[in-house]
Amino acid sequence: MTEPTRTAPAGTAAESPEIDLDVLRTIGTPLDGQVPDVPAPDAWDDRRLHYDLVSPNNRRKFTVIVVGTGLAGSGAAAALGELGFNVECFTYHDAPRRAHSVAAQGGINAARARTVDNDSVDRFVKDTVKGGDFRGREADAYRLGVESVRVIDHMNAIGAPFAREYGGELATRSFGGVQVSRTYYTRGQTGQQLQVAGANALLRQVAAGAVTMHTRQEMLDLVVADGRAQGIVVRDMVTGEIRAVTAHAVVLATGGYGNIYHKSTLARNSNATAAWRAHRRGALFANLSFIQFHPTALPLSSEWQSKTILMSESLRNDGRIWVPRKADDTRAPGDIPEDERDYYLERRYPAFGNLTPRDVASRAARERIDAGVGVGPLKNSVYLDFSDAIARLGRDTVYTRYSNLFHMYSQATGDDPFETPMRIAPGAHFAMGGLWSDYDMMTSVPGLFVGGEVGWGYHGANRLGANSLLSACVDGWFTLPYSVPNYLAGLLGQPPLAADDPAVTEALADVDARIQRLVSNNGTQGPDRFHKRLGELLYKYAGVTRSPEGLAQGIAEIRALRAEFWADVRVMGTGDQLNQELERAGRIADYLEMAELLCLDGLDRDESCGAHFRADHQTPEGEAMRNDDDWCFVSAWESPTTSDAPFVRHDEPLAFEAVPLQTRNYT
């Protein structure tokens, strides 16, 4: 596989930001999402009815690879294993339960409508489609809503300790972008508890012999033969051994690419290499510029800070967000009178108040900070204040709801949220973009499926809070166990790809050559230095607010940084040993390719929608201004294999019937 190297004109990256889109990208063939030709509410029932099946006696004849053990991966591996398929499951962690799903805090949505607040599946879909600013599939949102009921019942049954009301009913609370209570939770540890339950279900199948678990194995390439995904190449992170594993189908459940921004809410090891390697083998990448900046991340306190920390959106149920009315106010928050405070979300969006969708809340915070009324030592944050809730509900009730979150904040900052407001700021968090897939979760490479954040379909241009855990569970437990067998049914009688097939040896050789190139490079800078600089570029040019000039400048500077990386990166050690610097170098090399396409996607999409906010497309009130006439489609990108070839954008048109196109209004 050829690795293209695009560079800016020598020494002129910062001086030559002009980008000709017609030179940089071309338009390819339209895409068909394979959505059933029935009304969106009926699509999932229709699809399941017409799926081909594999009989129980034939299932053991098929092997499926699952990469990732988060909620999507553990669910898919456990379900397929219990159905009788041979499953090979891979994770770079030392145990399945360590997958990044553990980091989710606030809750998981479901349209069970147990609270008498007029919730329903239709309202769930309306909130999800509207929250995503009409840039996701309507039929996918219906599947998410329909299966959400089973997800809660299932996760409850396998051991997730959901919070309960006094009478024993499962408790719910609200999240951003909705006006009902449909979020189920386990205090501020929902992801952790769901992940423990899912990992235990997976390990049950490991013990039963249905799933073979491979820990500390990192996927570095996809094996494609005869136009189908038929295996992966992995590196043993302890010994450095590189090997290929073949199968009838591959499921990627490897998470999102938010860490491309360097300082993000994701775990430091979270990365996009598996997804990007699949993309380089032909899987289209959709909507890369759709990145969510979480409004309740902790602000940076130093340039040397390695990451940001997430504080759950659930805190916005009782916390009020405000800034001083005058700039450079140095008074302690408790010394600022009420009439000198600006509760800007309540002022601008009274119907939703502090529970506006994340993209809206983050833009509003960024606008206030840029206006000079930010708080904290670096003036880079806003207040999240619980004093009213404490006075209204009592300290004990607030402690019961948020104890672990308050404790985490205190440990990170040294401040007590009971005594002084939290300080929060937007931070890179969730990727709505991902590998493009059709309605069956299969990518443009037949046999390669996606689940969870590595995909793109449900969330459009902005994910609603608590829909992340839900989409991962729906994919893993209740979608892929139907759609993967439908694909496998057509392969009955075919063995897995031979270990000496030319496609296997080529993929192995490509991985080895890439590793050797990294460890033999005679550079002077460690890989982390390049990652930090890349993150700074992306926050500057592809952050909460973008502009065409900034995105063009970003492309030029990313190209120059990538050329410098390959000329001057230094990786200590060798490839045949435990080598964390090598791991990071490979991931950062992928980010440096990805970042150019992320900026190109944002530059190409000549509108504002959801979290993709272009300064040249906004209403007089500062809200996102969509262009449905020209941009109501998914952009799915094909990367070139040579440096002089353009990127190719393929479009999947989006249609909305149950939830007609409309301008979002949260006032």
How large is the share of residues in beta strands? 5-15%
Mean pLDDT: 95
The CATH topology of the largest domain is: FAD/NAD(P)-binding domain
* CATH homologous superfamily classification of the largest domain: FAD/NAD(P)-binding domain
Number of distinct helices: 19
Q: Could you describe the largest sheet, including whether it forms a barrel? A: 5 strands, mixed
* Helix/sheet category: alpha+beta
Overall geometry comes to globular
CA radius of gyration: 24 Å
Q: Can you tell me the residue ranges where pLDDT is under 50 for at least 5 consecutive residues?
A: 8-14
Count of DSSP E strands? Answer: 21
| C-alpha termini separation | 51 Å
Count of the domains: 2
The CATH class of the largest domain turns out to be: Alpha Beta
- Helical coverage, percent range: 25-40%
CATH architecture of the largest domain: 3-Layer(bba) Sandwich
Write out the strand line-up for the largest beta sheet, numbering strands in chain order.
1-21-20-12-18
